[in-house]
Each structure stands twice: as structure tokens, then as C-alpha cells.
Amino acid sequence: MTDQAQLLPGTLDLLILRAVSLGPLHGYGILLRIGQISGNALLIEQGALYPGLFRLVRQGLLKPSWGTSENNRRAKFYELTAAGHTRLREETDSWNRLATAIGSALAAQPEEV
Amino acid sequence: MRLLDSLRFRIATLFQRSQINADMEEELRSHIQHRADDLERSGLDRSEAERRARIEFGGQERFKEECHEALGGNFLDTLLQDVRFGFRMLRKSPSFTAAAVLTLALAIGANAVVFGLMDALILRPLNVSQAENLYGTEYGLDPGFQSYPNYLDLRDRNHSFDDLAAFNFAFVGLDTGKDPSVATGFAATGNYFDVLRMQPYLGRFFHSSDEHGPNSAPYLVLSYAYWHSRFQDDRSVVGRAVQLNRHPFTIIGVAPPEFRGTLLFVSPDFFMPIANQEQVDGQNLLNARGNIHEVFETFGHLKPGVTPAQAVADVNAVGAYLEKTYPKEFAQKNSTLGRSGLTSFDGAVREFVTGLMLLAGLILLAACANLGGLFAARAADRSREVALRLALGSSRKRILRQLLTEAVLISLVGGTAGLMASVALLRRLSTWQPFPGAPIHLPVTPDAKIYVVALALALVSGLLFGIVPVRQVLRANPYEIVKAGSSGSVGRRMTVRDVLLVLQIAICAVLVTSSMVAVRGLVRSLHGNFGFEPRNAMLVSTNLAMAGYSNDRIPAMQKRMIAAMQAIPGVEPEGVGLVNNYPPLVYGAATRTNVFNEETRDLRPSNAAAMPYGYDVSPEYFHAAGTVLLAGRDFNWDDDEKNAPPVAVVNREFASKMFGSVTNAVGRFYKMQNGMRVQVVGVVEDGKYLSLTEGHEPAIFLPFLRSPASQSYLVVRSSRDPQQLAAAMRSQLRELDEGLPVDTATWNSRLDVVLFPSLVATMSLGVLGMMGAMLSTTGVFGMAAYSVSKRLRELGIRVALGAQRTEVLQAALGHAFKLLALGSTAGLLLGILASRVLAFVVYSATPRDPLVLAGVVLAMSLLGLLATWIPARRALSIDPLILLREE
Predict the structure, then answer these.
(1) Is residue B565 located within the same domain as residue B520?
(2) A112 lies in some domain
């Protein structure tokens, strides 16, 4: 548990969008999916997921609907809207650019300057 | 659109909050259950699994709050919080709240009432459809009055109006079989209701097709109010036969409730065709072109595309034609068009309402100055609180929002209070009948417009002064303020607050001064010299036409009436007089006649040497009225004989205007419009005839039986108790003719109508003056209370060091009194200047009156005392020990 990384501000939304893009999920399922696709490397407080979900719903990126989970329990499922898909693409691009830039900046050697 | 959507979303979230909450809770519970399922699968028992799951989830409440914020619903939540906090803060400082709310309520109330009056009197004077292009004509000698033949010519010769209707008053005796009584209605042309494009409430209206010559259309249409009060909403009245001045008439319909006739202030009881005019007046005047009293007003809708200016030119062209065709009977005066219903009063009403608006505006200004002072003081008081909140991490935006919310709260509470008071007052006004028995009232009905205007005014003035502290908040440096404590800086000697207070007191002093000037003027006009003595004089009004008398039977009956009055015990024989139509100053009904020099040959109206008021009076009238004879002789009964030489008694003004002096006038001649030479046999003192504010006007008096009129007033002088006397007079007249409606009143009480404008002006000014005084009181109170609370510690130290009570008071309130004196002086001077304007409305209003000056000074000092009483008590009750320990 101790080697889990803290989330950067603003990245939770991106992770949610990505997790949901792989198929409709309920809140707990999203947490599991993020853990699964990130190799359990990220620390996310469980309750903190929900303000993010509500924000994305309000922005029209996610569409909620009640349904029944694999545990046979009532749960609210989220799926990506068209706007959500677009946003995920844009955010992914911009994250990649940022990550590349920061990565190359940190990898720079004295002789390269 | 996006704004609208977001607003709708926010409002929806507010109202669906409980549902959203339930939804949210279920979702979080479901999450915890799923997690517990997983934990259970890893070997924990169910209850332990659920406990762990809840712990892992974290603070549910916090996340729920964050979720709400994410939903955007928190704008209204914050607002509610602000409102709750605002109410708490306002409750904590009751004197500030009371002063501010009272100030606003006064200002908003006054302005709402004035707006209501303006709305009713100027914006929509008549309750009829398409009133905006309904215009009334004024032309002829007297504005508003025209003869019937002139109306017919105007109707047929103009090219500007769709159609023209006309109406006149009809004062009649109406006998429905039970109780004969006097009713006031309109005698209207047949097309009256068609021109107004109106449908009856019940039955039918009369139309042009009903008129077939004189007395051919004995039909009555009742007004809704009269139908309600006299016939108790009886729907079977349609078709009922009644007696109007002893002539059979049939009720054919009832007018709609919202229609109150085509004349402001007057609501007629009924409408009848003008074709039956002879049955109202006892003689047919419809063919007399020179009789300009048969039509009160002519009105109609302008044709599409015709401007009022074009219509005026058109009407004037008809007037020029009439003058050329009938030079002796028609004098052209430039005619004008007015909003129908207001044509006769337009100017006066506009001036009055404008004056009121000006004064109400002053009240608003004073109130704003007051509010500004109050809010500024409060801001200074709260600087420490604001600083503390800033230091604790509150955002400036949030604090400003809180301050504005408080300002809006005060505006709304004050505005609502003022509005409620004004609506109550307007309701009272609309049912108010200033003259008992006369169908006169103010057509004000408070409607949505008034509510909107009042609340908008309240919000604007509240917000304007709620913003006063903003600069302070933005500049505040929490560190400095918290460190320095609340003692504050003494600063400049004259602050913005002081200037506002002086300004406000000055405005209020203006109002107080004007109201006192008006009151004094009214009192004086009640004791002025009218050219007759209204005290101990009783008036009996009769209209013989109401009892069915034709003109040839009138003289004999009137002689018998005079004799009957003389027979009453306590009445001297020479104490009874009779005047045709109306006596001076009654109902403002004086009429003028054209008078020519003896040598004038061409008797067209424009050659007239004078236009005196004319009265037809009996012998002994002057004695009964208390009018002093200056030279010559009174009338005797011989003058009334048909073949006697025509004689007249004139007043001093007429004598000096026509003949140079009083002594010159007796025995001289002048000519009437019809060419008759009249000899002056007597001169009486000048008087007031039409209004109390008029100057010296010429007047002539003629023997009454030479021009018999059915409407007359008996003047009876006696020192007997008016009620007993009136009863005796009524029983005497009943013996003469049982069916004659008789109206008795003292001459003094009949002056009500002419006193009405000054009475209303005085009352309005009085109320506004009181408001001004209350505003000053709250203003001075706020300032004094603030300065005492601010300097409590300083005062405590002074007391501890042995200061006397007077010294404490001096220190605590000296400044407030200085400002009060400064403001009052400025206001008094301004008020004296402003009162010159008042002289137009209120008879003999003069500000250079020691009583007024003393009154204003006294009033302002009294209210100063009143306002500083509580703060002074507080300053005197200071216990230095407690105070110094607290700090």
C-alpha cells in the first residue's frame, strides 16, 4: 500500500472517463477498474470518487442510470456520452504531451543542455 | 439559453434536493455494500466487513456536501445561509434595523401612493378601451362648455374624428316608487356608448337611432355602482318604469362595473339621452346656440393617421366658421384637445401630481441620505467583524455577498411595509367621498404596476446604500484592524456621514416648513373676507324642475318659498334672499357674462369691455348674504317686474373698471350681450366668486325674476341652531310642495368644494411634513446612538475622571445637535423660498409668518430632543467600572 502514488489534481476525472470508456460501470466498479488498469499503483480515497462523478454528469460527459450489479444489488451505472468520448480523447492527448514534456525534461543530461 | 438552462437546473436541484439526497445516499450505500461483499469474500464476517467498508469509504457527509457543490446547487444554499445569517445580524442590532426599515417604509410608502395617484389620474384616467386616442375638445368661451348647436356643427363639420359624442351633467329627482331622491347623471348624446365602443353589463344602451327630437328618448342606463347601491343588484330593473323630475322614464340597461363615466373624479349615477334635456332643466336649451352650458365636454376617437395637432387645427377651422356665421353668439377662442376625462382638470391635476411627485422625490432623497448614513455607520462598526472573517480565510466575495444580502433584506422588509401601508391608503382613497351626497371620488385602484415600482424603488435604494461599505471591505487590512481594536480613529471632523445627515435634515425641514405654511394658509383662508358672511347663513338648494315645474310657474313658487322662509321664527324678514343657480363659492360654478360700454355698437364677444361674474338675486339677498352695500341702493320687488327699467348692482371692481370709481358708477349705464341698456343702481364690496385664490374680480347682480331658473339657492340668515333651522325650513318647503327634493346645509360647509384643493394640498403636505419629521428623527437617532456607542469607552473615562452629566451629554450629543441646527437652518431658508410656490395652491400662504418660523424651530428642536432621548439616557447611565473592565 505504501508505494501507491498520490493523484495529481485533475487527473481523477481523466481516470474515471478512461475506466468508463471500457464499458458501463457503477461507482465501486470504477474504483476496481482504475485499480486494475493502473496496476493498483494509485491511491484513491473511495468517497472522493463521487464528487468527481457528479461533476462529470453535470458537464454531460457521463450518463447515469440505475440497474442491477453482478452481485445482484441495485447500483447506479455510468456510461460515456458522445461528449465524454471527445473529452477523453482530448484529455488523453494533452496528458500525453504533458507527460512526454515532463519526462524528457527530467531525463535531460547535463551534456545535452 | 445556457444561462437559462443553468438557472433552471439550479432551481430544479434546489427543489429536488430531498430526492437527490435520497438518490445519493442509496448510491453511496450501494458502494459500501459492494465493497463489503468483496471483503466478506476475503473471509471477514458480514458485520465486520460492513464496518471496514464504511471506514474505508471516509466521511460520508463531507462527500455528500462536495457532491452537492459539484451539482452546482450550492448558489441557492449559500443564499439561504446568507439570508439566515443576515436576519441574525439584523436582529442583533435592532435600532439600526428599525431605523433603516422605517426610513425605507416611509419613503417607499409615500412614493407608491404618489405613483398610484399618477397612474390613476394621468396614465389611465378613463377605464375604457382604446383610451389612448380618445380626445376631448375644449372650445368656445368657457373651456369645456359648449352649446348643443355648436356641438352638432362640430360633429358634422370636422374631418378628424371617427364620431363625436358629448355629455352634460343632469341633476335630477329620481322616484323609483318608494323614496324620491336626488341623483346625478350624465345627459349624453345618443352615440355616447357607441363612441366609447362599450357593451352593456345588463340590458341595452341607447343609440342615435333612439333619438327622434326633443323628449323622444325617455331611457335610463344605470351605472353599476348606482344599480348596486340603489337597486341592490336587482336584475329585473331592466324595463322598470321610474319618474325622473316627474317624467316617466324606462330603465333599459346597466353599464359595466369598470366604467365610471367619462369625467375624472365624478361618477355618475345614470346616463340619459341629452335629447330629453328639457325634462331636466325645465326649459329646452338645445337650440340656444349662445347657451354654452348645455354640453360639458365633446369627445371622440381620432381617425387612424390623424395627429392631435391636425385635429386641433381642424376644430379651430370649424370654430372660425362658426364665428363668421354667428358673430353675436360665438366668440372663437383657440381650442385645444385633451385626454378625454381630464380636459377640464388636466392642467391642475398635472400640476398637483407633479408637485406631489417632487415632494415624494424629496422624501426618497432624504430617506436615501438617511440610509447612507446608517449603512456607513454600521460599516464602521463592523470593520472588526469583517477583518476577523477575512483573517479566518473568508473570501472578500463571500463577505460582500453577505453585506448585499443584508441590504436586500432590509429593502424588502422596508419596501413591503411601505407598500402595504400605501395600498391600504390607496384603497381608502378610492372609497373616499370628500363631499357627502356628491358623486365625487378619486378613481385609484392599486394594481400590479404599483407593486413592481415600489419594490424596484426599495431594492435600488437599498442596494445603492448597501454598497456604501464595499470600499471599506475591499480596502480592509485584517491584520491592522484586529491589532488596533475597535476604538477606531477620530479622523476628520466632518465625514460623509455628517454631510448626508445635514442634507437629510435640510430636506426634512423644507417639508416641515412647507406643511406649516400650508396649514397656516388654510386656517387663514377659512377666516378671510369672501365678500359675504358664511357664518350664521344657511343655504337651501332646490331645483323646481325636479318637481315638474315649467319655467312660467317658477317665479310664483320662488316668491312663496321666500315668504315661507321669512315666516320661520328666528329669521328676520330681510334675512332671506334667493340666488339663481349657485351662490358664490359653491361648487365652483360661477359663470361669466359679456358686458359692453354704453356706446359700443358692434356687440361681438371680442368687443366686450368686461367679463364679470353674473348673479341673479332677489331683493334682500345682499342683506341675507352679509354683503356690504357701498353706494346706491339694493333691489326692490319693482325691479323684478317685466316692464321695469333694467337695473343692476355691481361690485367695486366692476365699478372702478367700467366707470373709474364707486361713486361714479351709480346711475351710469352699460350694455348686455343682447343689446339691453342696464343702469347701475348700487355698488357692493368685492368678494370671492369662483375660487379662494382669485384676485379682485368684477361681478354684476341682476334681479332674479327677469331670468327665471329652476335651480336656485335660498340664503337664510339666522343665529338659530343650524339643525333646528334646517328642519324648520324643510318642513316649510314640504308644506309648499311635498315632492320637491330639498337640500339644506350651512354656507360654511358648502365651501368644502372650493376649499378642496387647498385642503388636499394641506393634507398631503401635512402628511409629507410628518414623514419628513419622522425621517429626521430616525436619522438623528441613528447618528446619536452610533456616536454614543462608539464613544462609550471615552465617555466612561470622562465619567471616571469626574465629568458632570452636562459635560457627558455635551461630549456625546453635541455633534448631533450641531448637525441638526445646521440642517434645520438650511432647510428653513429653503422652505421659505419653496413656499412661494405654495401661494398658488393655498390661499394666503406666506412663509413670512412669525408663527410658522417659530413652529418650524420648535418642531425641529422637539424632534431633536425625541431622537436623542434614548442615546442620551444611555450616555448618562454609563458605569465606567464595567466599561473599562470589558475592554
Answers:
(1) no
(2) no
